[in-house]
Amino acid sequence: MFALAFAVIAYLIGLAGAGVFFAYVVGTGTGYLPRTEPTAGAGDWGKNVFLLTLFALQHSGMARLTFKQRLGVLGRSIYVATSGIVVTALVLFWEPLSGEPVWQGPIWIFAISVLGALGIIACCRWFDHGSFFGLTQAWTGESEIRGPLCIEGPYRYVRHPLMLGFLIAIWAQPIMPPELLMMNVELTVYVLIAIPLEERDLVRDFGEEYETYRTKVARLIPFVW
Question: What's the domain range around 197?
């Protein structure tokens, strides 16, 4: 009972963190959130780099098999809860930067961002939502739950549709102030580094099946790369 209760709380924390993050991106990218005055000096840049580095280390390090094996059935839930906390801290402590927006476009650009976000949600249909967030592990008492390799739906066109939807959602903003540009650039670099790490785990889990799949399907851009 404790494991299941913990998993549900972790799930809610993870969802809250995702909500805070996208609220910041959308609010900043549409101009709904007023920009605050940055402090003088280069400390803001360094602080932002530190926050993104912390996010990257937590997000990738805790996703590795060694970490999950050590924590057992609650490993995934701890990862989800910690991710929600870290991404919330990222947003709350992210510093504004001086300078005018890099671009200011029409508001309809935001519709593209919405499509990216909807793509992320739609992908949930094609994998085990419960095990992805640690709920199934807590319910069954099994720390390792691996379903079949998903190659249907959006996975027929790109191997990482979640990442693609995420990048579309953060970049398709009508207004791009320097602080949002910095966040997006660093998150994009993180995604490009994280994908090979994730694929290494997928090769370990699915072997030749995944090797064959990735020779036929693009990584992130349909039919291109």
Answer: 2-216
Q: What is the pLDDT of residue 50?
A: 95
Is pTM, for the whole model, over 0.90? yes
In a domain, 223, yes or no: no
For residue 42, the model assigns a pLDDT of 59
List the Cα angle 76/149/17 in 5-degree steps. Answer: 35
Measure the CA–CA gap between 208 and 179, rounded to whole angstroms: 43
CB contact burial 125-152 (16+ within 10 A = b; e otherwise): ebbeebbbbbbbbbbeeebebeeeebee
In a domain, 222, yes or no: no
Tokens of 120: 């992320």
Residue 60 lies in a domain: yes
The phi, psi pair for 76, rounded to 5°, reads -70, -40
Low pLDDT (below 50) residues in the chain: none
> Phi, psi (5° rounding) for residue 224?
-120, -55
Evaluate whether residue 33 is within a structural domain. Answer: yes
Interatomic CA distance for residues 102 and 175, integer angstroms: 8
Three-state SS string over 127-143 comes to: CCHHHHCCHHHHHHCCC
Q: Give the chain's domain count.
A: 1
